[in-house]
């Protein structure tokens, strides 16, 4: 698999674990390994990017939506915690949890987990804004998308907040 692989090649089975969707599933590839013999930090971001793409598809704002509606979610802030070294071939899953939403924003986190040991390997929290791609300006989520977000958010608010999500990301 090349580095130019599209996120379609990294589709997760999209089966929930409680109400948190699995948004990525796959092994650590050889080209992701750095000179220390571990997954390079850039590839943690790549895996989390694939998970974000899958979340957007689930919420109805994926690639086809962007092309038809000229709107997308832009990441404006992200924090990553690298918790464990990850080696070649290790099986990964990413579980996603919505934390907060507003008319124009969405805050969520991804947990990268070793699918065999269930050990948490990395954590990221993101803040994204909904943007009209023609004008470059934020705008409110359309009602149908907001309904999707609010439905998933309601399920996720019943779950424990991950400890690492206690550090707020957001606009000041």
Tell me what you see in this structure:
The chain has 172 residues and is α+β, with helices and mostly antiparallel strands. It has a single domain, classed as Thiol Ester Dehydrase, Chain A (Roll), CATH 3.10.129. Helix content is 24%, strand content 34%. It has three helices and seven strands, in the order ββααβββββα. The protein has helices at residues 41-59, 63-69, 143-157; strands spanning 16-17, 20-27, 71-82, 91-101, 105-114, 120-132, 137-138. Strands 1, 2, 3, 4, 5, 6 and 7 form a seven-stranded antiparallel sheet that branches. A hairpin with a 4-residue loop joins strand 6 and strand 7. It is globular, with a radius of gyration of 16 Å. Mean pLDDT is 87; it is low at 1-16.
- Based on the structure given, which CATH architecture is correct? Roll
| General shape | globular
If you consult CATH, what is the topology?
Answer: Thiol Ester Dehydrase, Chain A
The quaternary organization reads as single chain
The H-level CATH homologous superfamily, spelled out, is Hotdog Thioesterase
Total separate domains: 1
* Rg over CA atoms: 16 Å
The residue fraction in helices comes out at 10-25%
CATH class wording: Alpha Beta
Give the H and E element order.
Answer: EEHHEEEEEH
Query: How much of the sequence is in beta strands?
Result: 25-35%
Uncertain regions spanning at least 5 consecutive residues = 1-16
Discrete helix count:
3
pLDDT averaged residue by residue:
87
Span between N and C termini? 41 Å
Largest sheet: 7 strands, antiparallel
Total E-strand runs: 7
Main structural class: alpha+beta
GO molecular function, one term: fatty acyl-CoA hydrolase activity
Pfam families: 4HBT_2
Protein name: Thioesterase
